[in-house]
Amino acid sequence: MDSATVAAADGGDALVLVGTVVGVHGVRGNVKIKSYTDDPAALDRYRPILDGAGRPVRLRVVGEAKGTVVAQFHGVGDRDAAEALRGTRLFVPRSALPPAAEEEFYHADLIGMAVDLLSGERIGTLVAVENFGAGDVLEVQPPQGASIFVPFTRSTVPVVDLGGRRIVVDPPAGLLEPVPDEGDDAAEGLS
Amino acid sequence: MARSVWKGPFVDGYLLRKAERARSSGRNEIIRIWSRRSTILPQFVGLTFGVHNGHKFIPVLVNENMIGHRFGEFSPTRTYQGHAGDKKARRG
To answer: Pick from A26, A85, A99, A177: CA 20 to 30 A from residue B71's CA?
Structure first.
């Protein structure tokens, strides 16, 4: 995830990047959009959708094609006009997203938060939220060195302070310790 | 070709010992492992492993649905930079 997914809007409301026009589809003015929403085809359910300049755009999803959604922009009826939209980034104001359920947090809210220990010591900034099939993990970038992955569980992350833009981590043993030079395989007599 | 059933699942020996140590200690700890090839066994359920992806350790909290899979499946070795969009994370 990149931190550029959220940008400040004129009204102070953050903007969330939800898609990018990556090409055209057919001769009737349809475009292909790389959607970043959980359900790619649900892109047109959000109101308002804004372009990179903050102008509202109206679009309707009409299909899917090779990992993209095919959409029709209001007022765009031919391929040349659709070509002009290539590269357009589509945003939704953060306030337009529905409230998250209990224990659920939008990635857009979490990314950029400061990460503190229970003692108050700051260990870094949250740069990404990933899920590799074993639950959500938070990627924390310390001021120096490689990033750290923290399991997003209630025991490891007891506090998520959305207003204060910080999360508090209670790291299990072994999470923050430096990595030994070699794998334990050698130490365990397996090499 | 699939592994022969008569051989049983493959697990590196050191990993079994580490898991046993962690379970008996009762401490909340991450068990750092490099053995991506090892099969996840029922006795690993509830433990958190840090599975090396060649670069970092990815936390893998083992649950029942993972039994029979390999640790490496949950620790990708290639980076994909996506966008947050409207995606949500659930605190487990």
So the answer is: A177
